[in-house]
TrEMBL record:
First and last residue of the signal peptide: 1-27
Organism expressing this protein natively: Sodiomyces alkalinus (strain CBS 110278 / VKM F-3762 / F11)
Name of the molecule in the record: N-acetylgalactosaminide beta-1,3-galactosyltransferase
Gene3D superfamilies the record matches: 3.90.550.50
Lineage: Eukaryota, Fungi, Dikarya, Ascomycota, Pezizomycotina
InterPro entries for the chain: C1GALT1/C1GALT1_chp1, Fringe-like_glycosylTrfase
GO cellular component, one term: membrane
Amino acid sequence: MLSRRALTLLSFCLVSLLILLLTAARGRNDWSLDSSRYKHLLPGSFTPGNDIVSVHVPSSQPRDPACAHIPDTTNILLVMKTGATESFDRLPTQLMTVLRCLPPDNFLIFSDMNQTIAGHPVRDSLDTVLDTVQRANRDFDLYRRQQVCLVDQAACNKHVEAGTATAGWDLDKYKNVHIAEKAYRLRPGYDWYVFVDADTYVHWPNLVQWLRRLDPARKLYLGSVTMLDNYAFAHGGSGYVVSQAALNEMVAQNPGVGNRFDKKARRSCCGDYVFALALDNTTQTRVTQSWPTINGEKPFTFPFKKDHWCQPIVTMHHMNSEEVSSFWEYELQRYADYTLSLSSSSSSSSSSSSEHDPPPLRIKNVFHHFVKPRLTSHLQDWDNLSDDRFYLDPDAPPGAPGHGRTFEDWQIARAKKDYLSAQERFAHASWQNCRDACDEEPKCFQYRWQDGLCGLSWSFKLGAPAPVGKDELTTFSSGWNLRRILRFVDEMGDCGEKVPWPKVH
Ligand SMILES: *[C@@H]1O[C@H](CO)[C@@H](O)[C@H](O)[C@H]1NC(C)=O
Ligand SMILES: *[C@@H]1O[C@H](CO)[C@@H](O)[C@H](O)[C@H]1NC(C)=O
Ligand SMILES: CC(=O)N[C@H]1CO[C@H](CO)[C@@H](O)[C@@H]1O
């Protein structure tokens, strides 16, 4: 007779065996790794004298069912930047969703202090900034304060007079080049390095499909182009992708690159800009425009139109925890069907894994899931961000809408003043007139009116609630020309087979 203890032990062994068998079967069905891609990264093959390139071994962890749709990511390192004032607001959701499916070796989190979040290391990116730059520099007040905080950071920051958001921002610009340097030193063997913020959403299935088409042995720096002082760089919040070749040259062949740009960072506005200067200076690599696939907007602010429709989406920005979570749920729901249909056919190991790829998620899919069900013809106390053309009267007489308010210079610059039709001449006078002006203009998809300012838009976006108005004049009114939107959707059709990935020359 078996004792109770032996029985328990036996059933435990059986259950473990069953789980092992199940996960092994699942592992074969993953969108498979093409190991030939690693060959060109073997030491010495393209960067003579480089001693720190290591070859990566795919992890054999059992896969989480929520990750069944995530293709092999082991040649991509995700590097997420945050700050101690926000890390606990943003990272837990990222770790439960977008980061959940990455093997722990595949991502690094950098901040402005050493922390752990639910066991995940968060690394201080600033400890290597030159002493001469840190000392007597108000930008580093928050950095120093955080380190002596006896309890949680939220409690320590609560009674600080200046906003911690601006203090966090002042520190942020010193991080990017050091993060790039530290990330490459810690994990030198990846094809691609993807740098994002903690409120950036990364859509992995598309990222993997896109990067598979590109050669990491070329010096590449991909992102959404922003201009500063006539210099083009990749916007950090949208995220930027740097190839092995570019980062290797910048870091491995330029020891101390972070410190060389500390003083420049102090005089600059932004870390993403300083990163671009450092990369350019050390490797002569300039940004390749990858917008709108790399994107600074999110589902509720996307300006849908021809250039925001068939394109696949890889990143979105300003996503709070709730938005990250809802997009993740959508992602799981969308790929559930593909995963099922793939699991029977993909067991033969084919190197052209692209034929097993699910169709990429395009911007229009985001419209259909998140925006279309929410559009109505008219909303009060709502700002739909209509700002392509304005109608306004800067000299509105007493009693007329817009009297006494100030218009911003950029609004006046975008105002139509000449050749006004009868309709347009009074578009600023009420939301109904503004709506009629939109209906009259063939390219207008939506309008917004408030206090003598009528805005029309050549794209459609959902927007956000506006401050509640005191009366009809101060109330924000927004509306959509639904007929025109549906006709556009119809005309664009299913976008065809060809996927407009960003052009990388
Ligand atoms: C953070 O941790 C790293 C690695 O353990 C260490 O080198 C560094 O000095 C720490 N930074 C601070 C400010 O304690
Ligand atoms: C890089 O910066 C250094 C100064 O730090 C400057 O002397 C050099 O000319 C720059 N190189 C390039 C290629 O811009
Ligand atoms: C909520 C929101 O983003 N509102 C924006 C609406 O558009 C105006 C310009 O037309 C911006 O100033 C607001 O910030």
